[in-house]
């Protein structure tokens, strides 16, 4: 097997594609032959040593992947060799094979394409947990999605539409805005040519959005929060812009609004039964054709640095995939 090794968490430039012995699964583990993995923003932060979770060195990065079980460790009952699975494991995915806890893997029906599965769990689970669990989104409400062309943004557009909401997508370019409209956004705000607050006022008749889905942070967060509707909910999903905003809390009082933190990974650990039910619902929505990952580009697994460069270019729409050659 081969794997990408981060020896020092000092950045993409120190990653190495190296041969490794094929591992044997321990009790409770399975070995997966990885078909595809996807990039998520935390993958970049982890290899840069900037994420809240810092794995012991050296480590194999790659949080999200899909593939086929090759070998099963003692005590595993729900998976067997040949099972098709998707996993979100934090690390280990940027490789040809991985031994991981069977509890972290979701069995896939035969109709679920492995490439789609590799780009599915993180973004859709984050967005479903945010919109339906934390914000309690209701049919007929209006959702503003910031960073709408990214992985979690494109998932949020689709899930909000599936829940019966009106979706306003805000993106950084005309091309990205057009892509958001193509996947279901009712309205788009091209931030390269339009002012966020003024356009929101026009689109909502001065009422503002009921729910703000915010994986961006920075200056956009305050501008959006100042436009929020009465009893609105601002979902703090992440800080892709790089800056953690200092929002004026008097706006919570004036608007009767809520700031709501979203940490799907911790939710999955603390409430595994609810998380499993949510994942089952997401699979159902996908098989029904109501949600589907937006794939930006595909790279060979050995071309991980080029995939990271694509992510850092800020031109990505949806998800970047890494594919292992047969």
TrEMBL record:
Entries under InterPro entries matching the protein: ADH-like_C, ADH-like_N, ER, GroES-like_sf, NAD(P)-bd_dom_sf, Quin_OxRdtase/zeta-crystal_CS, Zn-ADH-like_protein
Gene3D superfamilies: Medium-chain alcohol dehydrogenases, catalytic domain, NAD(P)-binding Rossmann-like Domain
Keywords: Oxidoreductase
EC number from the UniProt entry: 1.-.-.-
Keyword DNA damage: no
SMART domains xref list: PKS_ER (SM00829)
GO MF term set: oxidoreductase activity
Pfam family, one: ADH_zinc_N
Enoyl reductase (ER) domain: residues covered: 11-322
Record has DNA repair as a keyword: no
UniProt protein name: NADPH:quinone oxidoreductase family protein
Species in which this protein is naturally found: Roseateles subflavus
Upper lineage: Bacteria, Pseudomonadati, Pseudomonadota, Betaproteobacteria, Burkholderiales
